[in-house]
Amino acid sequence: xxxxxxxxxxxxxxxxxxxxxxxxxxxxxxxxxxxxxxxxxxxxxxxxxxxxxxxxxxxxxxxxxxxxxxxxxxxxxxxxxxxxxxxxxxxxxxxxxxxxxxxxxxxxxxxxxxxxxxxxxxxxxxxxxxxxxxxxxxxxxxxxxxxxxxxxxxxxxxxxxxxxxxxxx
Amino acid sequence: xxxxxxxxxxxxxxxxxxxxxxxxxxxxxxxxxxxxxxxxxxxxxxxxxxxxxxxxxxxxxxxxxxxxxxxxxxxxxxxxxxxxxxxxxxxxxxxxxxxxxxxxxxxxxxxxxxxxxxxxxxxxxxxxxxxxxxxxxxxxxxxxxxxxxxxxxxxxxxxxxxxxxxxxxxxxxxxxxxxxxxxxxxxxxxxxxxxxxxxxxxxxxxxxxxxxxxxxxxxxxxxxxxxxxxxxxxxxxxxxxxxxxxxxxxxxxxxxxxxxxxxxxxxxxxxxxxxxxxxxxxxxxxxxxxxxxxxxxxxxxxxxxxxxxxxxxxxxxxxxxxxxxxxxxxxxxxxxxxxxxxxxxxxxxxxxxxxxxxxxxxxxxxxxxxxxxxxxxxxxxxxxxxxxxxxxxxxxxxxxxxxxxxxxxxxxxxxxxxxxxxxxxxxxxxxxxxxxxxxxxxxxxxxxxxxxxxxxxxxxxxxxxxxxxxxxxxxxxxxxxxxxxxxxxxxxxxxxxxxxxxxxxxxxxxxxxxxxxxxxxxxxxxxxxxxxxxxxxxxxxxxxxxxxxxxxxxxxxxxxxxxxxxxxxxxxxxxxxxxxxxxxxx
Lengths: 169, 586
Hints:
The complex is a heterodimer. Chain A is mostly helical.
């Protein structure tokens, strides 16, 4: 799949800021996820498992999700900017995070405990919704962060020397 | 964008896949073979088993939603990656969700059904805890889902040739906040791009490819023009969709074109209007139609009358490529594979181009014609006389349509060949008996696959950039002695686009310095294209990252590079005013 993404537009190009756009989107997308976690009683269970107060758990979650958003945006490159498909890519990323983080990593940091019952459903839904929100938001955040094509330094990298292959001799 | 996907088709496929799964496994349950009931597993997360209406509704809804998501994943990442029957592709894909269901989702569903808010991690909660019947049910269910999705999800791009595009909405022009200036009419060097607009049919005339629809130009036409202006494009090669406009003799639908052409007239870039691009409306058949020239001349006259301000025209784009792909390689339109069909298509296309040119001149006598053709060259691999003969013949065949429209004599060998395949001397004389307009420019397109090696079996193989555009374009100039323009180039490997752009540009500069009246350069196209990696032969939806902008309309590095190139050169002597173009326009 990496080759496929690469062939069809992985490289973001010099005017895009995928890490920043992804981090902001990832952080904003935690709002509905936190709501779901609270609704399903998952937040209190997670806080108990990781041994932190609820506010601390939310704070740590925001940071982790900002980082995850940046990873997502860098990984998908230009594909993350596609309005029609990005919600799906984000949701798939959220599912992958759930499959790795929610199922395997949380027990590792939580002394072998993991959510069950309704809180487990909440964890699953919150990550899928977070991913969907991340994917939906990112194309719009990305547009606001575009560098101008006239930004100093960009044009110099694109001059006639690009015609040559390899280093100067 | 990774790929152009039909969200509607994928959603339908996902819903039907989920329903088929439920129906088959439900039937087996009724017949006394209970397997894995996914609807119950999902539904009882929200409702107790005592509330069947509730859990069946929620379970079915959740199952369908999951089905849609997986069908979309299939559409984006898996569909057409292998050349199997569609249902088999779906079956192979179903292994992915089946494994995830077995090792991740099912154990978690078991945990979600527990009457506790947390449990201690054990092997039982990580490893799959399914019985053989459940395992059989999971595998069977996923197989049915995959087969159904695979069978339904095909042809994500294009539409049946006898219908208009589905859900075609043409947004009206909005007040531009970015463009205040008017169209610049000058005789400076042409820095061009194009909106990719090919519309051939495939599947023996049944399926219409429409690049403007696939790249969403119909929906984003105004943004596309504004992006072109943003990077300094002066001229745009633009092919309004003949198959959607020309409804029948004397019958036209100008709705979309009026909006788009109105914008171009007001703001630019200056359009080089491409009237026939690899296809014709269904009612005209294909390029074997000997009366094509009558209908296309009528269309050209109607177009020129409706938009009298348009000065640049390409009556028929790449006649040689069109004839070859339609009648010799069996890919588009009539999909023939014989010399007789090729000769007929080449003559019909040339005749149409001549008739369209005359029709346009009758309306606008100072019209300028950019006759774009693919530059081709074949190199014999070895001194074998038969291989040499094949290379020489192909090197003459490449000129045939241009020879016809420019009245250039063809060799006795080519005359014999044409006679053998149905074009007699009278027909040849009839087509070539016309006056060539003074304001004609030869457009020479060039891609990395245009130079070919005739191998020891007599088959052509791509050579890459061996001699380069300068050498191949010189062949065309030496033959016709007319003003020239580099009318198409791009690079499939986006990361190499800037290097390719500068190299092509240096070819242009060298040809100019050699005294050839060269009036313009084109990076083709403005946005990425769809399925050109298979010459549009299969409706797959692959994105070829060749554009100045991607399909999100974000600039590619080559787009920024082209802006830099234009900024560097547009005010230089010889470019601000291009003497060769001044002579043509005068």
